[in-house]
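DATA CLASS: polypeptide
GOAL: derive structure tokens

***
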Amino acid sequence: MKADPILRRPFHYRYFRATLALIIINFIVYFFTSKQPSLTVIFGLQPALFISNKMYWQLITYMFVHGNFQHILFNMLALLFFGFTVERAIGSSEFLLFYLLCGIVSGACSLGVFLITGMYGAILIGASGAIYAVLFLFATIYPRSKIYIWGILPIPSPLMVVIYVIIEAASQIYGYNTGVAHYTHLFGFAAAWLYIAIRMGINPIRIWINAYKK
């Protein structure tokens, strides 16, 4: 029997509420950074410090730092809604690998954009890249599920991903919501796509099309 490729070798299924742990860690980090704002510079992803001071940990820590309560509230609500469901489906170990790796990849790609455009003093914070990746995986695992906008309007999860891609791309191109790194959100989707294709051997588009074939 041919062994599974190492990239697709599954973890033993375990469920230990990693989503809850991530939410708690995010709020703990927010508490300390709100009390000591200088920590945001240390733990956020800033090109100048990352390169000159070799603060390589920032590729991980940036996704646990948030600018204000509204920022962390909306991110953690999204993680609460989608994270627990995805974690139960794939197991906590797989979920943690997915979440952290997609967050690192979206941060690394954003860092590349900063360096190419000369934005050495910019700082990237927030879990949005990883959370957008979780939304993408949710839509792949549950393509026929509905997401209710404002608790009223039901939208199929794959369509929600498409809508977000359009919104984020348009916002980045036309400069809406200045100060928001929309490309980081898009990198989160891209990282999720690659993870699902390489690690899981799944084509999300094919999943979505098959889910809505009559």
